[in-house]
Amino acid sequence: MTEKPPITVDVLLPGGKVTTVAGGRSLLEISEGISGFYTSSIVAALVDNKLTELGSVIEKPAIIQFLDLTTTEGARIYRRSLTILLIQAVYDLFPEAVVKVEHSLGKGLYCEIHKTPELSAADVAGVEKRMWQLVNRDLPIKKRRATLHEAEQVFSRQGFDDKVYLLKYWVKDYLSLYSIGNLEDTLYGYHVPRTGLLQKFALEFYRPGVVLRFPDEKDPFTIPPLIKQAKLFEIFRESEKWGTILGFDTVGAMNSLIEKGQIPEVMRVAEALHEKKIAQIADMITERKEEICVILIAGPSSSGKTTFAQRLRIQLLVNGMRPYPISIDDYFVDREHTPLDESNNPDFEHIEAIDIPLFNEHLLHLIGGEEVEIPTFNFANGVREYHGRSIKLEENQPLIIEGIHGLNEQLTRSIPRRRKFKIYISALTALNIDRHTRIHTTDTRLLRRIVRDAQFRGTGALETIRRWPSVRRGEERNIFHMQEEADIMFNSSLVYELAVIKEIAEFLLHKIDQPEPEYVDAKRLLAFLSSFMPLAPDNVPSNSILREFIGESCFFVE
After folding, report:
1. Residue 1 has what pLDDT?
2. Model confidence pTM above 0.85
3. Interval 129-138: pLDDT, tens
4. What is the DSSP track for 278-313?
5. Phi first, then psi: what are they for 201, rounded to 5°?
């Protein structure tokens, strides 16, 4: 009998080098032989561009690209594994406790541990100590495939009713369960194979919960300091209160309402909560109308700034104020003077892409009651032009300025801070897949942008995902570190929106083929969306922030 030739695989190393190694082994075994080429721990791999766990055995020739903590997907897997480590440690010490993973906070993950007596600093220190014990023992993070019936029995026994609820709508006939000790869980994504790989983390008491801290992918060896963002934390707490008003906070519970035909009322209440908050912000501005002359609205991509500005304008009109909008885009410097980014391309999100001196000169003239000719930026030619468009503000007519730099004092440096009202807006969803699996704010915004770009800009999901890292870098540089500068924050997330977006986004994401680097993100988003029952957009009102992305908004000519 002729022996089969040995299996070999090609490994793409950092810097573009390729090495050929023996297959027929697990990815973990293969990674141990080439780990010296990587700056941090390897946690997963792309096998023929398909995300694969290290425990998988490679049984045929393939192209492998290992992922360490400097990669976005590697960092995501590391954080997910840290989360299941935290959950196991809590249940080892407090078997009756309930853990709820809430949201990001600074560079960490805020979680709540509900127990009797209530959580204390000493409890948190004990949980962290237990986590380190599990790490130092280098235990396997076991994985097994369970039928839905088996998973239901496991979750019921462990008191995870929220996970049982979701199984009713699960699209596959099996579920992957992970365990470190005697607890079996699923966070709907891959994990590292052993606890010994989780060498960088810290746990900090943050009343009434904890913050799980971990390295940033830019620096996998350092845990960044916790920056306490009181205003952002408060807006997340408000979102939780809205969830209580609506009567649910997990996808499984929402699916049940959709199935029973009870979701239209939820949609109306969610929209009413938005309208009430916008009216409250308008009232805050009106109370200071003798002082405030500039209203600034800032937020990351796809946060709904444009619709929010229109709805705020209407509420201000109700209060007897007549705000006048000015577009920062019209004050771009001529394209030849635009700053360049790290790839030597024009960086239109850089604050110096705006003619700050001219913008401030016009602001001073306008609030001083003078008439000003406003420029128009010609995007085709890349130059600023004047076409006789002059404005003069009257009494009770503040300026509304919307853009990513609204919180930056440099943008409106000629106007005293007390005469400005700054609003930060983002989609900070309080809805979880289940109590242990949160919905990332970034994913919500990315899905909004995918749907909007396809609808209004003729751009496919592939290109939108490809541009997303650059968008995120701009947000980190220009927005997130200034969040606390806002006078008020507004959460533009709608608890029902992903059920509406689901089928539109799925159609677009399915067009991304496996050879494309963006395929990994597409598969992750598709898996995420599979948890939702679809919801027709019929009951979404025409002034909803969601209409900015799915179309038929009363504020836009389409």
Report:
1. 45
2. yes
3. 999 999 999 9
4. HHHHHHHHHHTTTT--EEEEE--TTS-HHHHHHHHH
5. -170, 165
Residues 212-268: tens digit of each pLDDT: 999 988 889 999 988 888 888 888 888 888 888 888 889 999 999 999 999 999 999
Q: Is the dihedral of CA 533, 537, 540, 545 positive or negative?
A: positive
| Residues 305 and 432: beta-carbon distance below 8 Å | no
Q: If you count DSSP H runs as helices and E runs as strands, how many of each does the chain have, helices first?
A: 15, 23
Check: CB of residue 444 under 8 Å from CB of residue 239.
no
Give the sign of the dihedral formed by CA 174, CA 180, CA 183, CA 186: negative
Quote the distance between the C-alpha of residue 526 and its chain's center: 16
- Ordered by where they begin, the domains of the chain are 8-68 (3.10.20.30), 74-228 (3.30.980.10), 231-323+398-550 (no CATH), 326-396 (no CATH)
Residue with tokens 């915004």: 445
φ/ψ of 402, rounded to 5, equals -115, 130
Q: Which two tokens stand for residue 399?
A: 């300026």
Q: How many CB atoms lie within 10 A of CB 2?
A: 4
Q: In terms of Cα–Cα distance, which of 86, 87, 68, 66 is closest to 78? A: 68
Bond preceding residue 325 cis, omega within 30 of 0: no
Two structure tokens written together for 180: 């470190």
| Pairwise CA distance, residues 439 & 433, whole Å | 6
How far, in Å, CA of 198 to CA of 216, rounded? 14
Please name which of 352, 382, 303 lies closest in space to residue 477, comparing C-alpha atoms. 352
